[in-house]
Amino acid sequence: MRINEQDLKKIKALHVALKMPVWVLDEKTNEILKSYTSIYKYPISYEFKKRIIAQNAVEFYSGILNEIFLCLKYKNVKIVMGAFRINNVSRKTFSLVYNNMTEKNKKMLKEEECWEYYSTLPVYPLGDIRDYLSLLGFLFDMELEDGYSAELHKQVEENQFELKKPFSEGKLYNTFRVERYTFYYENQIMNLVSQGDLEKLKSGLAELGTSVLPILTSSSLQTEKNYTITILEKLSSLAIQMGKDILSVIKLRNYYIRKLEKQEDFMGVLVTRDSAIIHFTKELHGVSVRAKSSLIQCVLQYINLKIYDSIKISKLAEQFYLSESSLRRKFKEEVGMSVNEYINHRKIEESKMMLQSGIPIGEISKRLSFYDLSHFYKTFKKHTGITPQYFRDTIATPEMPPEKNNNKISTESL
Fold first, then answer.
1. Whole-prediction pTM value?
2. By the 8 A CB rule, do 122 and 18 touch?
3. 301, 189, 290, 298: which is closest to 234 by C-alpha?
4. Residues 376, 380, 383, 385: is their CA dihedral positive or negative?
5. CB within 8 Å of 13: residues ≥ 6 apart
6. How confident is the model at residue 285, as a pLDDT?
7. From CA 34, how far away is CA 31, in angstroms rounded?
């Protein structure tokens, strides 16, 4: 389907509203068919033909000055919007950006001229992509936001499946006002995640204002990665405070950090960040309504950290200055099972992961401090209804399927 005059009017309106140049490219050749640049002065000549533009519906690109372009595939054309910034950049930091340019580009472009251009670019936080997609989807009658959301949830499901198998610079901000807003924004996200409700998360994020703008500390991409690590640390701290198993939370956090390190574009970083927010929300589903006292939370964390040891209730009670009877009563009231039941439950869950990774059953029994192999078999069967060997032979799947690349998405948000 080809674009018409009405489409061109919408594209021009987009140019006026966003206060940035917009180019319309041929779908196959990337030849510029139409451009809307108005009075916006820019010293850099962008050559789109030399790049493979928009293999997917929505993609981001960066220029030689870390300026950003958003490209939308629509009908028989590609609409490129930009340039804009996603970070606050000081004059001093910009010099580092300029110095990273090739000598050839430096000869053509003077630093002061580039700074004059760059400092006037509009600033749109990467975290506001949901709103960008909502606007573009409404304007061009495309389901961009819903698609992004579906893809995120799909990726979280894959991440959960994979997880069952065997110094950050993003905190620098330039004014107290920005710091205060950053605290408010992140605190609101943590409050939404802590409720463990995906619908509340979605509606709550829609009501939040603009995302935060971390100051550029290296490249724009690395700055966004650093900020994502900050969010991951806060999500992890929240989950632990709410009583989640420390080791499981650390494993989840490290998984997303490793995934983040592999990303090579802005969309990949954003998908990883939003996937983590959804994942932690799902992990905390139901936890808030099972709120436990700080004492029992500490007991649970202690058990989780000592899960490979032989845990005696008498020593556990002594550790927290309680009598055995008081510990048993409080634990049963708040957790819903006895101390011994919880310890064995955690040991069996841990043993399942070991069985999936191929560790010998006898070795698993020793590592988890069961009395002997027979005791391990009996406990495992009591909790699962099957033997460890049967679990390994019929349920455990040691080989993990290759990870799908879902970062290059054709649409997708919370």
1. 0.53
2. yes
3. 189
4. negative
5. 139
6. 81
7. 9
Q: 335 to each of 244, 291, 292, 331, 368, how far by Cα in Å?
A: 13, 9, 8, 6, 22
**Beta partners for residue 70, in sequence order:** 60, 81
Cα distance between residue 219 and residue 224, in whole Å:
9
* Domain edges within the chain: 5-84+89-122, 144-288, 292-394
Contacts of 1 (CB under 8 A, 6+ apart): 75, 76
Q: Report the half-sphere exposure of 245 (CA within 13 A, side-chain side).
A: 17
Domain formed by 292-394, architecture: Orthogonal Bundle (1.10)
Q: What are phi and psi of 169, to 5 degrees?
A: -105, 0
Distance CA 31, CA 90 (A): 35
The DSSP H or E segment spanning 61 is strand 58-62
Q: Which mean pLDDT values do the consecutive 10-residue runs of the chain (414 residues) have?
A: 88 85 86 77 62 65 80 88 81 83 84 86 78 82 68 57 46 48 79 88 74 66 88 88 77 92 87 91 73 78 87 92 93 89 89 85 94 94 92 65 36 33
